[in-house]
Amino acid sequence: MRLQQFLARAGIASRRKAEALIRAGRVTINGEVAELGRVVQPGDVVRLDGERVNPPRKTVVIALNKPRGYTTTHEDPHAEKRVYSLVPAHPGLHAVGRLDKETEGLLLLTNDGQLTQLLTHPRNQVPKVYRAWCKNGRLSLEACRRLEQGVALEDGPAKALRAIPARGGARLVLTEGRKREVRRMLARVGYPVERLVRLAVGPIELGGLEPGQWRYLSPGEVRLLRQSAHTRPAAPDVESERERVPKRSGKGTDQPRTDRRAHPSAGAGDKTRL
């Protein structure tokens, strides 16, 4: 496989960042500085900054119901609670995008940098479904129309693929993942967020996971995720008023990780009504 793909699947970095490492001359193959596009053959020794890079491992993808108050980071020394304390340790495990500290819901984690690149690159437009509760209650149809047409934010225009009024707020589908984007969009149309939960990423739904619980995705679900990055996005059906309101984060989310694995029934077969 190509060197940038090798690095991504080894969990070193996304493919884009791996390409930057190669261009910077930080990667060698069998002692020689490698060029972008070089193919890694069986038996080749790949090193990054002199440290050997182990061959790609079996892909692991974890679905976590991130509780409120947890930070999506490895590095922040000031973070009191980190999402990685809730899931099993795997070399190279990282989040597929981020949820801010106060946002709850579905967070995917993987050791496959190439998969992360596929799911997070703006070009692929993988849809994410959110449920928001707002200070000013249920969104008006006019506010939803403005969100679908696009609103101006300080870092450029942003719009929702779908925006539907719901009790106390709205349900939204976005294909981007900018910092605090949903919160900023809703504030822009006059509906500051009180609570925000992500319900789905592409074909993967939050399902029956309780706050702090996690589960491994099946190989079939991982294939569906990859396919979703190559398919023109269609807005999920978020019209129904019948919805399962996710539980609020509360006591119990600091239990040891061995106690937080979800029963298999919380998986793909347990579909959430959005």
From TrEMBL:
Its EC number is 5.4.99.-. Keywords: Isomerase, RNA-binding. It comes from the Bacteria. This is Pseudouridine synthase. Residues 1-61 form the RNA-binding S4 domain. InterPro entries: PsdUridine_s_RsuA/RluB/E/F_cat, PsdUridine_synth_cat_dom_sf, PsdUridine_synth_RsuA/RluA, PsdUridine_synth_RsuA/RluB/E/F, PsdUridine_synth_RsuA/RluB_CS, RsuA_PseudoU_synthase, S4_RNA-bd, S4_RNA-bd_sf. Belongs to the pseudouridine synthase RsuA family. Pfam families: PseudoU_synth_2, S4. GO terms for biological process: enzyme-directed rRNA pseudouridine synthesis. The keyword Electron transport does not apply.
